[in-house]
Each structure stands twice: as structure tokens, then as C-alpha cells.
Design a protein that fits this description.
By secondary structure, this protein is an alpha+beta fold. It has helices spanning about 1-20, 25-30, 30-35, 40-50, 55-65, 115-125, 135-145, 150-155, 165-180, 185-195, 200-210, 235-245, 255-265, 285-295, 305-315, 325-375, 385-400, 405-430, 440-460, 485-510, 510-520, 525-530, 535-555, 565-580, 585-605, 610-625, 640, and strands spanning about 70, 80-85, 85-90, 100, 105-110, 215-220, 225-230, 265-270, 270, 275, 315-320, 475-480, 485.
């Protein structure tokens, strides 16, 4: 009976102890450490807090790290508090009950940066298992920014209860990253390093580069250890000798200013080093005087080029890995080489997609010109303004129809109608009187382009106008960490492909297309067969202008809509048509591809200067035309003879 009574008493005491276990009681046990935390001893308090399993601990840690914890002077109790209007709003750390008080009765706890970092590490253990996925994501972002060995264990523990597939994948990724850097055994780290070969992200490469971090050194002999490489000092003798001087392995080089100061300090009876002061204006005599002083032991000796070479030859310059285990650095190097090879191929493919995207834009801009210039031989310098008119048509439609998807569907045919009408008007009023007079046509259309630009400025102003794409065109198609392309560029590519097929159908399968080709090849013979050349010229010019207007809508989704936007495409459009082959749709396609890929390739070689890239591209095009004046797809038959 006595033993049963003792057991009941012990159980009641234990229950009372559990009930008495509060956050405030833990803080009071470590009161001095909470009030004046230090990085070397705060881990004892953090261990007590994390092992308590109290639900209020995470909030307290966050407040402590943000310096929102205050201590009452009289009682020594700790509160979560915010200051406003010369008052403190206090919150009990256990119950959350709020009160207000004057700040004079409390002391704000201000942990330093090192302590706050350790608090953050402890807080991660709670955040990784938070019910809110946003907070779990924030914890993972924190680990990604500042990875630490102590985060690995709680991260692995949190994998089991993670129900979000995206967060689970991210946690598994971070486990590999942290294991590669902080794994308990060499084998665990090597396995994680090999697993990184499946990644091409910047984070993965950063982990490998941290593992392969080196420290430069110099010694009379090659040291033992995990040597990364032996450096040839003759590649940069000046900096290598400076490294010797910094390591106290060689005397410093005496500068001309130091030589002059030494001579001034050792003037005796009007001479320095036995040479009269009046003669020390020559470098050779100053060196001679300084050498004399050096031989007398009055100044440090000069370091000659021969002495530098001898000192470099006597020492070994090296880089040693900070990681001492060669098997780990070997695995990291092999993985990094594999990743860099894959990244290189991915960058090449990404550059190819950029070139394809730019070629699509140039093809859209030039396809209308391929008809007016290629089929009709009319040099239309106002072609860019038809692109501008199409873009502004799309902008006006969006003002009337706020739904961007519907407005885009309406804008495409409406832009064709507007610019088709403008093209027909231009052909009837101006172009028809200037056929076979290229210089007058060029000057007239150039003047019209300036007039259209000014008209657009008067109507819409000089500020860029937004042509907003629908939400489903927002973002980018991400193929990998390196390869991605925006949906707008994909849409422009699809639009260019549609116009290519449509134009081929019109020219090859419709009566209008057959009549256009007939008039292009032999105007007189076509007229004798009952075809009206004037009507065909009008419709052809209108068709080319209408296509330019639709291209303006597509380009406006990608570029800024301004009155000068067409001028930025007129030169590339003419180059596309001429390089591809005048009068050929496939030639225009080939020309757009050549110019687009060429420009992106030159920009990749010289990324800091896009203007220089365009200049080099134009020079290349000029040389190309010298060797192939009729373009990539040369015309055949009667058209070639003309």
C-alpha cells in the first residue's frame, strides 16, 4: 500500500511539473541568456526551447530575432511587444493576452547578428513542418540562401510528413545540396555530389564550386595536401613576385618614388651616392647612385629582373583545395565538368531558340515587303509605318474591348483591313504614277513615312502605348534551368508560320496569286490574256500592306508601340528580302533565318554592345551580297532574266 501511495504522489508531481512547463518558465531559467545572448552559449537555450514542444516557441523565436522581445524591469518577465505612439503593446508569451504599458518600465532585447542567425537556424526546424505551405516555402528559401550543417537533420526529418509534391521535390533537392557540403561521411558526400550531375541549376553549380574552392599559396617546395594545380609563375611574373613579397619570401621591389626619397635622405656635401645632385635628373644616374648607397648598406638593395626570375624559379606556386579529401574534390570536379558540358549544349540550344524567335519577328516584318518589293519591285520606305499602324490598331481595340483575348482576336483582322485600305490608297494616289521609277518611289514613300509618323504623334502622343498580351501568353516555357522561351515569342513564331502557309496558298492556289505571278513575270503578256495589271498591282500592294499591319499587332505584343517603331524594322526587312532572294517567299524565310541567327550569334560574342552586333551583321550582309547578289534563293526563268 505504501508503494502504491508513493507512486500516486510521484504521478501527481510529474503531472504538475508538466503543467507548470511554460515558455515563460523556460525563459526565466535562462533569463540572462535571453536578455544578453551570446553566440557561444545561446545554443543551450535554443535546445531547451526546441525540445519543449511548446506551440508558442516559433512565434517567440521570430519575435526575438526581429528584436520585438522586451523584459520588464521589476519582475524580469519577458513579453512580445511592439512600440507605437510612445506606448508598448505587450503580449504574454504563453497566453497571448495583450496589455499596454509605458516603455520606460521595460528593456528591449537586441540580439546581435550572430545570435539572430542561430535563432533563424533553430526556427527552421519549426517552419519546415508548418501547416501553411507559404511558410514552409519561406523556410526552404532561407535554407537555400544560407545553408548550414545543422539544417540537414531537420530537413530530412520533414520529408516524411510533406504532402505538397512541389515542396517535397524542393526539400529533396536541398537535402542533396546540404549533404554534398555537410554530409557526415565522405561516402555520403560523394554520393550526393554524383547525384548533382542530374542538375544544371546555378544552385547546384554553386555547391560544386564551394566544394572546389581553393586557396593560393607559395612555398620553396610543393606542399603536401589536396593540391588543385601548380601555377606557372611566368604567366604573370609581376603578380607572382608580389605574392612572394607578401609571404616574406623575397624583398620588395623599390619604386622610383622610393629611390628618389632615398637619394634625398642621403645627400652629403651636394652628392648622393657619390653623384652630384645636379646630375640626378637622369634615370640611369639615379639608379647608379642608389646602387652605391645599397652597396654601402644604407638602403635596401634594388630588385633586378634577373633577381625576380631567380626568385620565381626557386619557389612553387600552387592552389590547394580547402577540402582536404581528394576523393570528394575528384567527384565534385567530375560532376562539375559533366554539368558544364550539358550547360554548354543547353546554352547553344537556348541561343538557337532566341535566333529562331528573332527570325520569326523579322519574317513577320518582311513578309509584306516580300510582296510589294519582291513581287512588284516597289521600294516602299513607308512599309514600317504600316507595321506601326497595325500596332496602334491593336492598341485602340484594347481601349474599346478590355478583354485582352477577345481584343487580340478582333485586332488581327481589323489591322489587316485598316492597313489594306491604307495600302490601296497609297498605291492609287502615289505608287501607280511611279512604277519603273525607283528613285522617285523611294523619295515619295520616304516622305510619306515621315508624314505618317508625325500623324501618329499628333493622335497618340510621343509616349509608348501598351499593347498588352492575354494572361495565357504571359510567362515562359521553361524546358530546363538554362533553356526557356517566352510564350509571346512562341505565339509570334506560330503567327509567322501561319502567314507563311497562307501566303504560299494565296500565291500558288488562288486566282489572285496566279495573276500576281503572271503580272510579275510578263506584264504585257498577262494583259493580253485578259488580266488587268493595274487592278492586280493595287490588290498586291494592299495585300502586302495588310500583312504588315497584322505583323504590327504581333510585334506590338513584344515591342513598345510608338510612332517610330516601324523605322526599327525597315532596314532589317529590306535586308531580309534582298538576302533571301527578291520575289521568293522561301527566300524571305531563309533571309530572316540567316539574319536572325547571325545577329543573335554576334550578340552572344559581344553581349555588351548590341549596336556593334548590328553593324557587324550589316557588314557581313554586304559581303554576302557581293558573292551571291541574287540572294539565297535565286529567281529562275524569265524573272531571273529580268
Amino acid at each position: 500500500m505504501r508503494s502504491v501511495l508513493i507512486g500516486l504522489i510521484w504521478l501527481l508531481v510529474s503531472i504538475g511539473a508538466v503543467q507548470a512547463q511554460t515558455l515563460q518558465s523556460i525563459l526565466q531559467t535562462h533569463a540572462e541568456e535571453v536578455a544578453k545572448p551570446s553566440r557561444t552559449s545561446v545554443d543551450v537555450l535554443l535546445d531547451s526551447l526546441t525540445q519543449s514542444d511548446l506551440p508558442q516557441v516559433p512565434k517567440f523565436l521570430e519575435s526575438w530575432a526581429e528584436r520585438n522581445v522586451w523584459r520588464e524591469k521589476s519582475s524580469g518577465g519577458f513579453f512580445i511587444a511592439t512600440a507605437a505612439d510612445d506606448m508598448l503593446t505587450l503580449q504574454d508569451v504563453d497566453t497571448g493576452v495583450e496589455t499596454t504599458a509605458l516603455p520606460n518600465d521595460y528593456i528591449q532585447i537586441r540580439p546581435n547578428g550572430g545570435v539572430r542567425r542561430m535563432i533563424g537556424l533553430a526556427l527552421v526546424q519549426f517552419q519546415l513542418s508548418e501547416p501553411d505551405p507559404v511558410r514552409r516555402r519561406a523556410a526552404l528559401d532561407s535554407i537555400a540562401r544560407r545553408g548550414d550543417a545543422e539544417q540537414l537533420a531537420p530537413l530530412i526529418t520533414s520529408l516524411e510528413g510533406e504532402d505538397d509534391p512541389a515542396l517535397l521535390k524542393r526539400k529533396q533537392e536541398l537535402v542533396i545540396f546540404l549533404t554534398a557540403r555537410f554530409g557526415d561521411t565522405a561516402q555520403a558526400r560523394i554520393s550526393a555530389l554524383k547525384a548533382l550531375s542530374g542538375y544544371t541549376s546555378v544552385e547546384a553549380r554553386a555547391v560544386l564550386n564551394q566544394t572546389l574552392a581553393t586557396t593560393s599559396g607559395v612555398a620553396p617546395q610543393a606542399p603536401a595536401g589536396n593540391i588543385a594545380r601548380i601555377i606557372d609563375p611566368t604567366d604573370d611574373p609581376q603578380s607572382r613576385y608580389a605574392q612572394l613579397v607578401a609571404a616574406d619570401l623575397a624583398p620588395a621591389i623599390v619604386t622610383p618614388a622610393e629611390i628618389r626619397a632615398a637619394l634625398e635622405a642621403n645627400v652629403v656635401e651636394g652628392r648622393a651616392g657619390g653623384i652630384p645632385i645636379a646630375q640626378l635628373g637622369r634615370d640611369s644616374l639615379r639608379i647608379q647612385a642608389y646602387t652605391a648607397l645599397s652597396d654601402a648598406g644604407l638602403v635596401p638593395p634594388l630588385v633586378t629582373p634577373q633577381a625576380i626570375d631567380a626568385a620565381l624559379a626557386k619557389h612553387v606556386f600552387y592552389e590547394v583545395y580547402n577540402e582536404t579529401d581528394s576523393s570528394i574534390t575528384g567527384a565534385a570536379r567530375a560532376t562539375l565538368d559533366s554539368i558544364e558540358t550539358r550547360v554548354g549544349w543547353a546554352q547553344t540550344l537556348d541561343l538557337g531558340l532566341d535566333g529562331l524567335s528573332l527570325a520569326s519577328i523579322y519574317f513577320l516584318a518582311a513578309i509584306g515587303l516580300a510582296i510589294t518589293f519582291g513581287q512588284m519591285g516597289v521600294i516602299n520606305m513607308a512599309h514600317g509605318e504600316f507595321i506601326m499602324m497595325g500596332a496602334y490598331t491593336g492598341y485602340v481595340v484594347q481601349l474599346v474591348i478590355p478583354d485582352y483575348t477577345v481584343s487580340l482576336i478582333v485586332a488581327l483582322p481589323l489591322a489587316f483591313i485598316v492597313t489594306f485600305g491604307a495600302g490601296v490608297a497609297l498605291e492609287r494616289l502615289v505608287i501607280r504614277y511611279l512604277y519603273h521609277r525607283p528613285l522617285e518611289t523611294l523619295l515619295a514613300t520616304f516622305g510619306i513615312s515621315i508624314a505618317l509618323q508625325q500623324l501618329a504623334k499628333n493622335i497618340f502622343g510621343t509616349q509608348a502605348r501598351p499593347l498588352t498580351s492575354p494572361d495565357w501568353l504571359g510567362g515562359a516555357l521553361v524546358i530546363s534551368d538554362v533553356i526557356q522561351i517566352s510564350y509571346i515569342r512562341i505565339a509570334i513564331f506560330v503567327l509567322a508560320l501561319i502567314f507563311l502557309l497562307l501566303l504560299l496558298y494565296i500565291l500558288n492556289r488562288t486566282r489572285l496569286g496566279l495573276e500576281v505571278r503572271a503580272v510579275t513575270q510578263n506584264r504585257g503578256m498577262a494583259a493580253s490574256m485578259g488580266i488587268n495589271p493595274d487592278r492586280i498591282n493595287m490588290l498586291t500592294f494592299g495585300l502586302g500592306s495588310g500583312i504588315a499591319g497584322v505583323a504590327g499587332v504581333g510585334i506590338g505584343l513584344y515591342a513598345q508601340v510608338t510612332s517610330e517603331m516601324g523605322a526599327g524594322y525597315i532596314v532589317q526587312s529590306f535586308m531580309t528580302v534582298v538576302v533571301g532572294g527578291v520575289g521568293s517567299v522561301f527566300g524571305t524565310l531563309a533571309g530572316a533565318g540567316l539574319i536572325g541567327f547571325l545577329q543573335k550569334g554576334i550578340e552572344w560574342l559581344n553581349p555588351s554592345n548590341t549596336l556593334a552586333a548590328q553593324t557587324y551583321m550589316i557588314l557581313f550582309i554586304i559581303l554576302f551580297i557581293q558573292f551571291r547578289p541574287k540572294g539565297i534563293v535565286a529567281p529562275k526563268g524569265r524573272a531571273a532574266a529580268d
